[in-house]
Amino acid sequence: MYNKQRERVFMLMILPAFIGFIVLFIAPTAMSFFYSLTNWSVYNPDIKFVGLDNYKMLFEDVKTVSAIKTTLKYAVLITIFQNIIAILLAVYLNKKMAAVNFVKSLVFLPAVLSILVVGFLFQYIMTSADYGLLNNIIQFFGGDPVNWLGDSKIAIYSVLVTQVWQWAGWSMVIYIANLKSIDTALYEAAEIDGAGKIRTFFSVTLPLLYPAVSFNLLMSLIGGMKVFDVIFSMTKGGPGYATETIMTTLIREGFNSGRNAYASALAVVFFIAVFILSRIVITFLNKWERKLS
Question: Considering the domain boundaries, does residue 265 fall inside one?
């Protein structure tokens, strides 16, 4: 009897969160799937079922397809570079040396800044105008100015650099926490066996960083897929539509253009893309875990 009463209390305690999950996630997701099959628009109050027409238009739209490709490329690249840099920083700073805590704080500091603030800051730094700080430094050393945000070939990479700079420190902290839990006896055994620093890293450190790697890879990937703030503040999707992402296209079509059904179809594609990429990463991590065990 006591156990049943306790279970009721637990159920009541999680009920508000469960209701919020249904109202704020399950219901909107289901509505997006439904509206993606209709002609719903703020300019067209008569909702009619149109089947897969929105999806057909979506994949025939050059701008939208480009946005999907850009999002996937951005998400993969930021996941790779952010984690490589974070692991290297974590291994280097996980040592007893002068001012190491100050350096850790300095590297982590960008993560506490607003993404919009960082975006507007780097938009000012990378501008091709006469007052652009980065180009002024390049010209001071005799180089030619670069149109960092106005060249369609490099604009997305310019944005990528700013986000790796901002979030590498956040991932680094998680890796350092994981490194603290590794038994130092393992490093002593590797040293006795004659393993060098590189061999020790790949045979001892990296395998035991699995918990942090699995978490950071998923967070970086999902964060990269959802990128919007920094694109909005730095390039607004330009030049042309070279830095358009799924989120910027979704907001433009859904709110600015009033093509709500089309935006719902894009949201469904986004949901499926995130799910598939997450499953690929999880499958890779599971295989890695089985090799370690």
Answer: yes
